[in-house]
Each structure stands twice: as structure tokens, then as C-alpha cells.
Amino acid sequence: MKIRLELDGKNAGSISYKGPDSAELAVTYLNSIEADEVQVYLQKDDGTKAFAEFEGEFWNMSATKFILSATKTRPVAPEPSASSETGEFSSESLTLKERLEMFLRFEYPRVWFTSLDVKRQYESVYGKISLSTVSTYLARMYRDNILERKGNHNQREYKFKDESNPLMNLEYASVK
Question: N or C: which end of the chain has fewer CB within 10 A?
Fold first, then answer.
């Protein structure tokens, strides 16, 4: 895995990472600096390439999500999509379960949330999803020991268990 970051603004310059820890190192670096704009170039070991450019108030969170989703290892090759012909990574290559878990890790990393909270926020980002689908995946994540659960069936809330994950404990850089 190779990742190159090109930064404009306060910490202008370029930095590259190579190897199995490159995603974690790049994310840690991005969340420790200030910049006006960042360009992320990725090349996976199988030759797949991805590129994205971020600017604005929450560029570091968006860049982090992009890196983590693009570097996620998959047991089988994703189905070809229109964007894969250009060598770019597409979020459509993630399964619904993978996309939902990644979404939850960034939207609700340390707080309690309900199925309805997730449904509303998920739809604002990705589009329509049924409440029963969200509830089913949350119940499975609880069963798989990923989430904690409290409350009765009508007032159920969830929270991530794994707070020891270094990517869960990142402090996001403030943009001035």
C-alpha cells in the first residue's frame, strides 16, 4: 500500500507512506495538522488506485473516511463499476454492512445512538435505508460483540465497545 498526501496552506508540502501501516499513519498525520486543502493518492498492492481532494471546514474527517474506506481489505475483488475504469475507488464497492459500520464509527464513535438516529443520519449521506434494515444490522453488530446495547425493545440504544482501536481515539484537528 502506498499513500501520498499533498497539502496546501499552513503545512504545505507532500508526504508519502508505504507498507501495511500506511493508512493508520496517514490518518494520524492528517488529524494532527492544519491545512487548507489536501489531495490523497492511494495505490493498493493489487494496483488499484484512488484519488480524492478535500477542502472546507471538515476536510480532515472526509479525508480520513476516504482513506479508511479505500484501504479496507476485501476477501474478494469488488465488482467492476463505472468509476473503477478510471482507477478511482467507489464507495459502492463496499457492502451495505461495511458501509454502515464505517459510517457508525465516524458518526457515533463514543456516544449512545438509536436505530432511528442512524436511519436519519445515514439517509442524509447515502440515501434511503429502511429502519428494519438498520435495526437488523445493529442487532448483528451487538451479537458480534462490536456494539454495547441498553434499554428495552422500544427504547434501545447502542454504543461501540472497542474504544482501544487507535483510529477511534483520534483527535480531529480544528480548522480556523
Answer: C
